[in-house]
Structure formats: structure tokens, C-alpha cells
Design goal:
With 369 residues, this protein is an alpha+beta fold. The chain has a domain at 1-216. The protein is built from 8 helices and 16 strands. The protein has helices at 33-47, 54-73, 80-91, 273-282, 300-311, 316-328, 332-350, 357-360, and strands at residues 16-17, 98-100, 103-109, 113-120, 126-133, 136-141, 147-153, 156-158, 163-173, 182-191, 194-205, 208-211, 222-224, 233-236, 258-262, 268-269. Strands 4-5-8-9-10-11-12 form a 7-stranded antiparallel beta sheet. A 5-stranded antiparallel beta sheet has the order 1-7-6-3-2, covered by helices on one side. It has a 4-stranded antiparallel beta sheet with strand order 13-14-15-16, covered by helices on one side. Strand 11 and strand 12 form a beta hairpin. Helix 6 runs antiparallel to helix 7 (332-350). It is flat, with a radius of gyration of 25 Å. The protein starts with 15 loop residues before the first strand and ends in a 9-residue tail after the last helix. The structure holds calcium ion (2 copies). The site of one calcium ion has 8 residues, from loops.
Length: 369
């Protein structure tokens, strides 16, 4: 299954709504960031003790209740336990408020639906099963209790064929230090023998929920505080991404992964000393050979060697020359593998390295070209 290239859609039209029973002072969408900031600093002390999403949690629970009545009606069914567990998993992000400084993030369902259904499974057999459909949006509930809605996300789970499309909040971190934490979400889709996933970084800024601009163009795969400075860095496998025709549904591959170091000014660097230290762990030395792996039927090992050689300062031309030279001396089976992967490997050769380990990494040069 191809890896999704979809990114957050900045052109969607989020809506801001005032929740009447908020209990907190309400405001409309024209509230300025400055006003938000003032409000958050005024009430900041109590944020830790109260549920920041409280203004809309009752509303969310009320929406889920109707679907749960339908779920309970099938309590005696053979697959009732499985259905309850699927429901709990799908709705977990709708019941978890992620504190984000001046507000909170929560996934708000639109028209949650649970339905017992009868349909044909993968083998064409009629089976009793269930369908869950709970599309919604990630919302930022601000200090005034106003819910600011992001773009629509379709969440669903079907017991027939075990299909699931889900979202969950991974982490919150205030990258631009404006008092409102950015949200890192994961969106996954899984079915019979397939899995697809991506992560997005959302911010609440100028009164609306939108993709975090400084991460524009960065394909997130995971977050880690690599340099232990308290700021979450982004790991991305996109730069050296390679598809694989070999083997059964291999997981997404792109080696070496590249670190986007989170900087205090809210931006990310893929070329500073921290990003270099991360890449140095992946490519500790210039590879002595590029194509020598006999079992490399998908060319992944060669792809990583090529990327590492480029990161250690080899030019594209010299890497191509080495590859041709090594190819001639490979055993036949390995040559067949590499021939099959040749075009993909050539693409990796052309990828511009974000930095040169030869310049940035510490002294010892294991090998000269
Ligand atoms: Ca922020
Ligand atoms: Ca960090």
C-alpha cells in the first residue's frame, strides 16, 4: 500500500462556535490572539486544576449517548465485546482533553453512529457485524470556552472486513511559545492486510485551527526529544523514502530517517549540529561498500548505503560510478535484485543531503574516497 502523501489542508473552512453553556466567558471568532493571551494569563493559574475542554465535553457525551444506546441493544450478540472495544477505541480521543496551555484539544464528533449490520465478510459469507461512523474534527477550546474547529476528519470502524480509520492525539507542545500548545495527531487507516498512516501538526493561531506553518513541507513520522532540551523534535523518513516491490506489505521505509531539530524560535532545522548528531547515529561512517548485501532483494540496504555515502560528502557522480563498478562484481542473484531496484536507487543518489557529516561530525575520518 502506498504511503499517503496527503498533508493538512489549509484551505478547509473551519468554523468557530460559541458554546452557550460554557460557564466561562464566551467570545466570538474575532477574538484577537493578544486578547487570548491576556485572557490566558489572567486565568492561567487555575488551568491545571480544571478540565480545559469542559465547555464542550457535556455536549460530546450527549452526542455519543444515542449511539451507545444502539450499541447496548446488541449486548447479547456474539461479537458484543468486540464492538464495545472498537467503540471505546474510536471514541477515546473524544473523551480525552489534551491540556494545551491557554486551552485544550479534543476530538469533537459530528453525528456519531453505531449500527448493528448484516453483511458479507471477506469470504463472501453473510455475517452479523457492526458499523461505527463518527466523523468529526479536532477542536481547540480556548480560555473563553470557545471551540475552534479544524478540518473534518472521517473516523470509522467496520466489523466486516475489520476496517478502521482513526485519529488520535499523540502529543501537545507549544512550539511558537504563544501560550497555546500545538497538537500532533496521527491519522491511520487499516484494513485487511493494509495499513496507512500519517501525522499532522496543528496550531491554534489568529483565531483558527490550522496546520503549523513552520512544519510546512515536513512529513512527520514520529516525535522525539533527541537532544533532551525539552522541545519535541520531528523525525521524518520522507527524504529517503523508497517503495519496495519485494516481500509482503513491508512497513513504510525511508532510511536514514532525518531529524528536524525544534528551535526556540518555533522553526525546525534539518542541518544543525543536533540534526547532524542524529544522522551520525544512522550513518556512523562512510559505507565501505554500497551494493554488497546478498539478501537485499528490495534494495533497502543499498538505498541506505547510498544515502549515507552522500551524507558523508560523496558526490552523486562518484556514487553512481561506484555502484556501476560494484554491480559488475556482484554474484548473479544479488545483481538481479539490484537491477530490479536500480531506478529507485538512482533516485536516492539524486537526493540532496540536508548536511555534510564530513564537515559537521567529529574528527575521525574512517575512510577517504
Ligand atoms: Ca503555540
Ligand atoms: Ca529537542
Amino acid at each position: 500500500m502506498p504511503r499517503s502523501r496527503a498533508t493538512a489542508n489549509a484551505s478547509s473552512k473551519p468554523r468557530n462556535r460559541t458554546i452557550p453553556d460554557a460557564g466561562a466567558t464566551t467570545a466570538d471568532s474575532s477574538t484577537s490572539p493578544a486578547a487570548d493571551e491576556r485572557a490566558s494569563s489572567a486565568t492561567g493559574a487555575s488551568h491545571a486544576e480544571r478540565d480545559l475542554c469542559a465547555p464542550i465535553t457535556a455536549q460530546i457525551e450527549a452526542k455519543l449517548r444515542e449511539a451507545e444506546t444502539a450499541l447496548r441493544r446488541g449486548a447479547r450478540r456474539r461479537n458484543a465485546a468486540e464492538a464495545r472495544s472498537a467503540w471505546a477505541e474510536v471514541t477515546a480521543p473524544m473523551r480525552t482533553c489534551l491540556p494545551a496551555g491557554s486551552g485544550g484539544w479534543i476530538f469533537e464528533p459530528f453525528d456519531p453512529r453505531f449500527e448493528w449490520v448484516r453483511g458479507r465478510d471477506l469470504f463472501g459469507q453473510l455475517v452479523d457485524s457492526y458499523d461505527i461512523d463518527v466523523s468529526g474534527a479536532w477542536v481547540f477550546v480556548d480560555a473563553q470556552g470557545v471551540a475552534h474547529e479544524g478540518e473534518r476528519v472521517d473516523v470509522a470502524w467496520s466489523g466486516i472486513g475489520s476496517f478502521a480509520r482513526q485519529t488520535r492525539g499523540i502529543s501537545v507542545f507549544d512550539y511558537d511559545s504563544d501560550g497555546a500548545g500545538e497538537l500532533i495527531v496521527e491519522l491511520t487507516s487499516s484494513g485487511h492486510e493494509s495499513w496507512d498512516g500519517r501525522m499532522e501538526l496543528w496550531t491554534f493561531s489568529n483565531g483558527s485551527v490550522r496546520p503549523y506553518a513552520a512544519a510546512d513541507g515536513i512529513d512527520l513520522d514520529s516525535v522525539v526529544d533527541f537532544d533532551h532540551d525539552g522541545r519535541l523534535d520531528i523525525v521524518s523518513i520522507d527524504r529517503y523514502w523508497s517503495t519496495a516491490p519485494c516481500g509482503m506489505d513491508p512497513p513504510p521505509r525511508g532510511r536514514p530517517p532525518v531529524l528536524f531539530h525544534s528551535l526556540p524560535d518555533g522553526r525546525f532545522s534539518a542541518s544543525d549540529s543536533v540534526a547532524a548528531a542524529y544522522l551520525l547515529e544512522q550513518c556512523p561512517a562512510p559505507p565501505p561498500a554500497l551494493l554488497s548485501r546478498e539478501t537485499d532483494c528490495d534494495g533497502f540496504a543499498a538505498a541506505q548505503n547510498i544515502a549515507c555515502a552522500r551524507l558523508w560528502g560523496s558526490s552523486a557522480a562518484s556514487v553512481r560510478e561506484r555502484m556501476r563498478h560494484e554491480l559488475d562484481s556482484l554474484p548473479e542473484r544479488s545483481r538481479t535484485y539490484i537491477d530490479g531496484a536500480w531506478d529507485r536507487l538512482m533516485r536516492i543518489v539524486e537526493v540532496e543531503p540536508p548536511l555534510s557529516l564530513r564537515e559537521l561530525a567529529p574528527p575521525v575520518m574512517p575512510r577517504d574516497e
